[in-house]
Amino acid sequence: MIVERNPVRKKKRLKIRFGVDYPRRVAFTGDASGGGLYIITGQPERPGAKLLIEINLPDEQQVIVYGRVRWAKKVPPNLIRLANKAGMGVQLTQFETGQQAFSDYLVTLRH
Fold first, then answer.
1. CA triplet 1, 72, 11: central angle to 5 degrees?
2. Quick one: which H or E segment has residue 100?
3. C-alpha distances in angstroms, 31 versus 21, 37, 39, 40, 93?
4. How far apart are CA 56 and CA 74, in angstroms?
5. How far apart are CA 53 and CA 57, in angstroms?
6. Domains in the chain, start-ordered, CATH in brackets?
């Protein structure tokens, strides 16, 4: 289980799918770290909700991870690009697949 928030967040747009029961909604990340993601979406889940997230890395590897919504800011879809931090912050809690690939990807962003 991942418990610490990594203060090194890297701005990176990755395509993801997420959902409470099944990852059916498509969104993009605004930033990422080893412990969490900022997901840009006009329809965030409520704080405390558990999510299943599929992350598509640039090399086509897929990461499947569980997370918990820590904060959410709902904004009308037409204002997402204008609003500051529209979406939700998700703490990553357990990787199903791809943990090493995700960690390796984050390391490449630091250089």
1. 70
2. helix 99-109
3. 24, 6, 8, 9, 17
4. 24
5. 13
6. 10-109 (2.40.10.220)
Q: 88 near 72, Cβ under 8 Å?
A: yes
pLDDT tens readout for residues 54-109: 999 999 999 999 999 999 998 776 766 666 678 999 999 999 999 999 999 988 87
What's the one-letter identity of residue 75? V
CA 90-94-98 angle, to 5 degrees, is 100
What DSSP character marks residue 77? Answer: G
Residue 21: other Cβ atoms inside 10 A? 8
> In the beta sheet, which residues pair with residue 105?
none
Contact 65, 51 (CB under 8 A): no
